[in-house]
Every structure is written in structure tokens, then in C-alpha cells.
Amino acid sequence: MFEGKTVLVTGATSGIGFATAQRLLAEGAHVVAAGRNTRRLAELAQSSNAVTPLAFDLTDFAHYREVLAAVPAVDGLVHSAGIVENNPLRFFSLEKHQRIVAINQTAPLALVAELARSNRLNAGSSIVLLSSILGSEVGIKGTASYAGTKAALTAFAKVMALELAHKGIRVNCVAPGMVQTELVDALHQLSDEALQADRNRYPLGKRYATAQEVAAAIHFLLSADAAFMTGQTLVVDGGFTVQ
Length: 243
Prior knowledge:
Blueprint: E1 6-10, H1 15-26, E2 30-35, H2 38-47, E3 51-55, H3 64-68, E4 74-79, H4 94-117, E5 121-130, H5 133-136, H6 144-164, E6 170-176, E7 179-180, H7 182-185, H8 192-199, E8 209-210, H9 211-222, E9 233-236
Parallel strand pairs: 1-2, 1-4, 2-3, 4-5, 5-6, 6-9, 7-8
Helix pairs in contact: 1-9, 4-6
């Protein structure tokens, strides 16, 4: 389905970004894999000659034009890069807030803007932003900074969809609930019992989504099967938000 297509994937060295890159490679796509972990980028590039590694800090906004000038025109963009940090009101850190906003909110906007300005988004291409049910659908104490950035992506998608529709470029979001990634595996501050209690809140299987399940939703929105969808948010949460 993606033979001859080039897709830029940010956050491609771990979690959902990695699963998405693997899914696209399996279907014949050329993947421009962006990330800061040069070792894992090299490993990904060694796994397939259809990978172009792009070692790049997405918060280095001053160099976007220079870096993206070396990237071929793309048929798809998946913005999966992001950080999760608690920032409760009582201990609010402006520095932490600005860091979260920079990577989760400013980076995808600046990235799409530069790709559009430099005509590196091919006509008929598809953009998928990785949002979250947190912010747009639910709230969790201590996460105002993170939730705000993820909710912003759903708004970005609506506006970008209108601005790019004349070129047949679609812009959508995928909003997962909790996903079983390295990030969850590293939550040592929570006991196994506490994690399982949280998983039990997900009606479909009493578990978190896998990265591959979220990648499947991203794949759908990238594909021609979603040719008449734009400005939308696809929720992948095992029924969590319908309760």
C-alpha cells in the first residue's frame, strides 16, 4: 500500500513511533526516521535500507529550515515525538511547562509549517498527529501542561486541515489512552497492583493498548482508506472514554 511513498516519522526510535515505522517499512514505504537517540536511529537504519535516519532535536527551532531542506518531499508525516511530565499546580514549574509545550505543541506546528512553506508535502499526502484522550476527553490531576498540549493538537488538526485541503493534504489525530510502551514499563513509582487496577478501567480487555494497535490506527489515517477524512480525531482507548 505504501510502496514508493516517503513518510517522515518523529519519535521513531521508541514506542508508538517505532511501531509505526516498522508497520510502514513492512508495506514498502521509505521512512525518514527522526529522533535524538543517535544509537537507536543507527540501529533502525541498519535494519532496513529503506530508512533515512534524521538525528534532530525538534526543539531546535532555529535550524528547522536547514535540517528539513535535506529531507525529500514526503507523502506522509507522523508526529509521535513527545514527553510526559507531571506539573501539578502546587509545585508548578514554568521551565518544565515550557519544555513540555516546546516538544509536544510548538514542534508539530513548526514542523508542518516548514514542510508546507518549503513545498515538501506532496499533494494528496496525509499528516497524523499523536494526541491523547488526556486533555481532549479526560483530565488527570497534575497534568495540565501535558493535557493542554495534547488537546491543542486536536485544534491544530482542524485548522491545518482547512489550510491544506486545497492541495488534497489531510490532517488528523490519533488519541490513545494508556499504551504499553517503555514509558509505562519504567513507572517504578507505581506498584504492579496499582498499574493493574488502572488497566482494569479499560473495558476492552482490562489492559492498555499495544503500540502496534495505535500504529494500526495511524496507518489507517495515512492510507487511501481514509481519503475523505480530515480534521478528525480517532480515539483508540479500549472503551475508556465511553463509560
